[in-house]
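Lab notebook, bench 4. Still working through the backlog of constructs that have no structural model yet. Next entry is a single chain of 267 residues. Request: give me the structure tokens for it.
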Amino acid sequence: MVDGVQMVHYDSNSQRAVPKQDWMNKRTDTQYWDRNTGILLVSQQTFKAGVDILKQRFNQSGGDHYIQYMYGCSWDDETGVTEGFRQLGYDGEDFLVYDMKTFTWIAPKQQAVITQHKWNSDQAGLVFWKNYISQTCIEWLKKYLEYRKSTLKRTVPPTVSLLQKTPSSLVTCHATGFYPSGVMVFWQKDGQEQHEDVEHGETLPNNDGTFQKSTHLTVTPEEWKNNKYQCVVQVTGIKEDFIKVLTQSEIPPWADWDNSGKGILKT
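Model written out:
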């Protein structure tokens, strides 16, 4: 995933790694997917064997059990600060955590100590992962960001809509489909920015590489009918402000949200 958006998917049935974003499909070749398919196939086999081993350590005989493996890195393009992480979980709980300060494994559970000692004695492996997370991962992150940027416009304007499920509920201003992620979504009352009774949501990624953000206003129907309320959206790199004035016609009473954050109509 990059910035919360899935870009690659491995199907354990077909045993193939496939792109989930157009920008990944356009900027990578067959060798890339063959190489990653091979890596993930080995991981699938390793995790399957790992579940059997951990079931014995936890004295489990049946049922469904899971190994979760996560690693990644972050890069601040303004400060240059980088961070990384690597950890394994079993049945939803931490099993092993890679300490990025000492570059060694920590065992939160007694059942993990055997693996901790084995992996910490593998000096070549420790050096590999130290370099991979602190350097190689950052290099790939920058590549993926460039891949994504090259297939999107430099700036993409938002689609702005208003939603109120009932006359007594919050009024939501929802901006979606914009790029880059820098955005301000705020409410104005009679031309002045409204700070009270306003709740700001987080900027979230869409599956297509763009972003979305919502800001909620608590206001009575009488109040917004007697005053001019409007939602203003400003996106980094776009001079134009995107404004939606709060009127009855801008709030379809049958509107609702689906899980993707886009409006759907229910009849």
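Notes after review: Residues 254-267 have pLDDT under 50 and may be disordered. The longest strand covers residues 67-75. Flag for follow-up if needed.
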